[in-house]
Amino acid sequence: MRTEDVLAAIATGLWRWDNASGTVTLDSEAARLLGLPAEPVMLPEVAVRSRFHPVDWNEINGIVNLAVAEGTLAEARLRIMDEDGRVLRTVRSRSKPLENVTADGRNDYELIGTLQEIAEPQPGTTAAHTPITGDWRRSREAFLLDAGRALAEARSTAEVLRVAASLSMPGFSPDGLAVFGVAGDRLSVTGHHGHGPGDEGPFSDMGLDTDYPAAEVVRTGRAIYLPSPEDYQRRFPATWPLAQRFGRISWAFLPLIVAGRTMGAWMAAFKHPVSFSPDERSVLTTVARMLAQALQRAGVAESERELTTGLQRSMMPQLGPEIPGMTIAARYVPTGGGLQVGGDWYDMIPLPSGRFALVIGDVQGHDVRAAGLMGQLRIAVRAYASEGHRPDAVLSRASRFLAGLCSSQEHPAGSGSPDPDFHSPRFATCLYVECDPATGLLEVARAGHPDPAVRMADGTVLMRPTAGGLPLGIVPDTDYPTTRFTLEPGETMMLCTDGLIETGGHDLDTGWARLRAILESDTLDPDSPDASGPSEGHLERLADLLVQAVHGPSSHHTTGPLADRREDDIAVVLLCRESADCGCGTPPLHPSRPPRRTMLTVAQAEPERLSGARRQVRELLHDWADPEQVDSAVLMVSEMVTNVLVHTDGDAVLVAEAAGELGTRRLRVEVADASDELPHKRHPGEMASSGRGVLLMEMLADTWGVDPRGAGKSIWFELYERSKPDDDVED
Questions:
Q1: What is the rounded CA–CA span in Å between residue 528 and residue 531?
Q2: b/e map of 192-226 (b: 16 or more CB within 10 Å)?
Q3: Sign of torsion, CA 191 194 200 206?
Q4: Helices 508-519 & 538-551, crossing angle to 10 degrees?
Q5: pTM
Q6: Cα–Cα distance for residue pair 299/101, rounded to 1 Å
Q7: pLDDT, tens digit, for every residue of 298-357?
């Protein structure tokens, strides 16, 4: 006995539904169950669909889609209708969706299963069986809840339209959707679903006085329901030829109303007859209201994004023309408060002297007011710099400008009770660097901003301590001392805001350690075997690496000790003085290791900078072979600088240089002052607290000396790198 005969004996038929071709294959028993002649047949999907109750047909689509997603069986109960709309019988369908690839490369599925006549719903069993998707009969209330949640989560107009297209309405699912918007007296298609490319052409620019259902809905604010093509042709004969070619049977046009204003219209078109009963109209009206609210929210969000993006682009300048011998790269990443603009900024300003200035700053706050103050302050700094003022004068004037600007906003005219937070005084940190591209001389003025960092030609990174003053806007008349140093060929200076340092829960110390590891990475060294090689994008690659270290996929692996620290905007500027070894030019055939050099001034009024001098020496010798020599160098530097501060009335100028190949380098440290008094050897007593400086130099330095100058003197010492400490000599 054949399998088909066995299945027919138990009133079970087989069917195969090819979704790609839109055909359904039935055996004789399945055809009988559907009210057709009892013989095998292949029918189009529309012919089979007419045999099912519309509600059941709509629900089986959802069941099949869920089964495809979960890889389970699709099971449903379907009512079979005759030509007069009466229920003949109820069948149970159990099907397995099988994925296949169509001729044009699309992924689709084929449904293979059984149809079995049942007298009543079968109860479940406790026996083990293949996972079943189960019935998916949802009430209209549940559908509206799901639709409202999905539309509320849509963030753009495109997402709203995609959600609207995916809504499977209970009992009647539209085949085509379109959203019409209003601009002046014209009607346009905002989005559509279920139509081919170019189908929206005749409707894309239509006057509101046109004899078209959507135009009438916008004019009157009342919905229009057209259950049949005859109704459409009778009420709108002028535009019926435009709609006739789509082959639809029923249409619903509903107004999109927000706050009492009609903002457009929504069309739902059906390929099967819909009577638009009161329940169906209620569902359509509710969906139209939710759709209008979602489109309004999405439009406002898109306008805000466009505004903030335009504001950011207008405030973030493009770097100026190329500078001979210099390469510049910059990045700006707005992260604070979810806005696309913030209080951080950078700028490059050509100066009348032929030099140029680099400015980086951070206005307090992460709101729109911070962005507005940033824009005004940036313009003011550029104006002062373009007038030819020195770095200290530029920051002094900018501080006075910001203080006056904030004071004028504390109590604006005409404001009854201003927001105390919005109109509270604000301050800003700023770092202003004037650069001579011919010599590499940098003049730095700092207003409460993080110090710059310098990556030397051999990859060593040093924090460059600079004199500074209060942030801008705190005290109107503030002095800002200037620090001068030279950016040597092959060196790169980094200016950044605190967002680059502290983002991810870091403080200043741990944040600098993270950035230093990136700056000293072997992949940036042109001589490294892992390097990508010298190229014009060397500095751009470094800027990307710095930002990725903070916001990249692996940034969560380097979370700092302050996990609850608020995120901040980021601005970073890199300035490289080109050389053959920096990665921005052409490498030499036989490269030699460039020397490391640092210079620092310790003023009489700033003895606390002595700790910075010790830190500079340690960072300069971070890879020195003998740690005891590093300790000796730090001790001698501390002694030399302290002697200048105690025994003279001038400042101490420290210059340290490490030159040579690894393992055989020479460290030379000079401390200059304006006093002519030469150091001499003393014989301090056991309890004396001073007088041992020369003794320390003789004991710890490989060689040392004093060089008189025209005005003052220079005390120096040298250390020669040893691969390991000397062995103790046994008596």
A1: 5
A2: bebbeeebbeebeebeeebebbbbbbbeeeebbbb
A3: negative
A4: 140
A5: 0.59
A6: 38
A7: 888 777 777 767 766 666 666 777 888 899 999 888 765 455 567 788 999 999 888 999
